[in-house]
Amino acid sequence: KNSPEGSDRKWIYLNVPEADGDTTSINSMMSVYSETGDYGNVKVSGEILLNINYIYKTGALNILVKSCRNLAIADERKQRTNPYVKAYLLPDKSRQSKRKTKIKSNSTNPEFNETLKYVISHSQLETRTLQLSVWHYDRFGQNSFLGEVEIPFDSWNFENQGDEWFVLQPKVEVVTDCGLQYKGELTVVLRYIPPDRNLMLPLGQFQGKRGFKKGKKGDSHLPSGGILEVLIKEAKNLTAVKSGGTSDTFVKGYLLPDDSKATKHKTPIVRKSVNPQWNHTFAFSGLNSRDIRNVCLELTVWDKESLSSNIFLGGVRLSTGNGVSNGKEVDWMDSQGEEQHLWQKMIDSPGAAVEGVLMLRSSMGKRKL
To answer: Is the pTM of this model over 0.85?
Structure first.
């Protein structure tokens, strides 16, 4: 049956797991994904016939690429098309997510009958989208894009084991940004208590929370000024850097522009987990309402290495994102999207706790302080 309906649902970037299995090498994860080839030179046409099945017991996803029909002619001069099919489980576009069929010579109706296999748990699979693209192989030049289909698995019916034709779609223009490489996500709860509300809190609330900055005036034991509380709840789908597919993870926090040791906060280390739960609170004091618009909370996630330097796993920056701190242009006031939204929500609701799930950045860029 001709049913392209699965291909127009757009993928929402949420909850996407890390690379699967223990085979992941750090190098391939770090490799910046780049797609070479000619897009847009060939007018996309045709369909692809697939049979997708999933074996719950073994976690095997089998994509049987059967055939294509009515593909475009890629090489006008020779009137030839040498097609092959390439697969990724998005949003992972690293090398270990890539699968390919063999190349078929000179056919716009190629028969492949090849199975592309992945091993992935069902809960992870529900957060992925299968991207299959058809390409023309050119031995002497760049390969040409012949169309693609994207199948989100969040609502895929695996009971339906039949063959299905999918209409090939042209490439949607995507802004490719190395920073969009998926590194997992961090859940935090923010609360800003302004100076006037601070005094109304019972003293007991501050016990057991070390690491307050000394108040600006005097040396009172109760933190002075407003307080920023940051509860580092958990992370999901972090990169596994140790054999066995785990990491020993902790979160480090600074309130920029102050990146001195005195204001550095760290969570305890959670061993052997790519989905760690810390439930640890950082508190920064001495902040009035003007300060809160001029600072940036930088949180970075690390894997603890005993004999070498720790490995960076991703980070976020929370701020107004307007590029300016205390009247000076700075490149670390660069929050966007949910980072910026959550910070603004916190400013707009003083005294209340606001929670957000933030996608980790794959690099934090240079900080000019």
So the answer is: no
